[in-house]
Amino acid sequence: MQLECKNLKYQYPGANLHVFKALSLQLPGPGFHALFGPSGVGKTTLAKMICGKINGYTGEITSNDMNRILYTYNLERIPGWSSVREHFELNTPVANRHIVSELIHSFGLQTLMESRFAQLSLGQQNRTNLTRYLLQDFDLLIMDESLANVDEVTKEKIILKIKDMFSERCFLYISHNVVEVAKFCDQIVVLRSHHQVPQAVILTGNNHKNGQPLDKHALEHTMLEIVHAS
Amino acid sequence: MLHRRIYQFFIIYFLGLAALMVIKYGLSLSDYVIPSPAEIWQTARRFFPIYFVAVINTLSVAILGHILSICLATIVGIIGRLTIWVGSFIRVAAYNIQAYPIVAVAPIIFILLGDGLSSRLLIAAMICYFPLLLSFIGIFSEPVYEIEHFFESTLKMTWWLQVKIRAFENINKLITVIVGSATLAMVGTIVAEFIAADAGIGYSIRIALFQSDLAKILVALFLIGVCTSLYLVWLEWIGHLIQKRWEIPEGG
After folding, report:
1. Residues of B in contact with A76 (CB under 8 A)
2. What would the DSSP string read from start to end of chain B?
């Protein structure tokens, strides 16, 4: 399982500037990877190009053994007519039903199951939305600020659980938070503005997992590397 | 809701009547031109039962025409939301055809279908259909990305689910448009009856016009106003029930 972008060049229709001029990057395979960079640098654009929602670019995106690529973002909503439980029941593939209760418990959704989406807080909405995507069949899940409104403690629990439960899958976590990217992610793609060469720098993160001690010096070093690269 | 609409109508109606009386007595016009209040009252007492039946007849046709136009606008709106050429063709056609006055086409409908129920029904439906269609096409063509994205990404999206999402998200707009077009349905039916029909309050007004009997016309207008207000109130009540059923208290 591998994702590779070669010499991507893209300009939004009607825009004067290119988002990407010669973007190349490679993700090795399963793992919790990050796409990091300042606002407006093209993280969401790249995510949408990878999942096929944006076309009309030059260059090549190849994904070996990655047939099912899903993209989720933090503003998504569940239809207002059904409760969280009804939505999960209707939209979870039969093969994945055995992990529903584990995810609900780990993500702290037990008390929210009978609620409608609009009744939830922003953080609860983020967790609910991410859960329904994790219940789908996917090889790569792109999480575009999917946990933006979740508190730090819960966020850490969720990321560690995802890494634990879906170790054979690939994740691309888009975030502006240097600490969480450096701490939890395996490979970190630092995206830079179009006039910087190369436009993407790949760093190795600390890939912190449940039950493993965290090397604080290594974490600080990675954070400095990320800041320096961006 | 009911008393507010009826009060509003009464105020407007009696202000109009008062203005007529000011003109009549200010210019010393004869009872033949503008009848006296006593004559209007006498006419109302004599013709109320006949006109009441006529206005109920008109209202029934208007309601049927309104339902017909809602169904038609829903079907065409659903097809018009498509991004393929059929949807595009329907959207352009709808915008062009709605600019054509239906009243001008009405004589053709009467020539082809005669002056019976079908002509009245068709004209009523056509008059309120186009405003409904434009709103329905607009609502059904507008994607709700934050909800639809998941179903499209996971290949679970169906045409029915898409329509349901868009209707649910725009339920207030849909109800407002349906209530607003009810008046047009009533207007359409009366216009149809006025042009050529053998029943309904528009037909009664046409006869009163030939007799130059303004008192009868004023009585007919009163009944039209009351019945239209009642229909609008009923529609608003149904809309309120639907909104209340789907209303969700926001959390945080």
Report:
1. 146-147, 149-150
2. -HHHHHHHHHHHHHHHHHHHHHHHHHTT--TTTS--HHHHHHHHHHHHHHHHHHHHHHHHHHHHHHHHHHHHHHHHHHHHT-SSHHHHHHHHHHHHHTTS-HHHHHHHHHHHH-SSHHHHHHHHHHHHHHHHHHHHHHHHHS--HHHHHHHHHTT---HHHHHHHHHHHTHHHHHHHHHHHHHHHHHHHHHHHHHS-SSSHHHHHHHHHHTT-HHHHHHHHHHHHHHHHHHHHHHHHHHHHHHHHH------
Distances (CA, A) of B10 to A220, B13, B16: 77, 5, 10
Residue with tokens 């039903």: A97
Q: Does A67 touch chain B (CB under 8 A)?
A: no
Residue span of the structural domain in which A152 resides: 13-229
pLDDT tens for each residue of B29-87: 888 888 888 988 998 899 889 999 999 999 999 999 899 889 988 888 888 777 677 77
A218 in contact with B at a CB cutoff of 8 Å?
no
Phi, psi of A174 (to 5 degrees): -95, 125
pLDDT per position as a tens digit, B199-227: 888 888 888 888 888 889 999 999 999 88
Query: In whole angstroms, what is the distance from residue A41 CA to residue A200 CA?
Result: 10
CATH code at A148?
3.40.50.300
Residue in B148, B150, B155, B245 to test binding to A, most A beta-carbons within 10 Å: B150
Instruction: Specify the fold of B47-246.
Output: MetI-like fold (1.10.3720)
Counted domains in chain A: 1
Does A38 contact chain B (CB < 8 Å)?
no
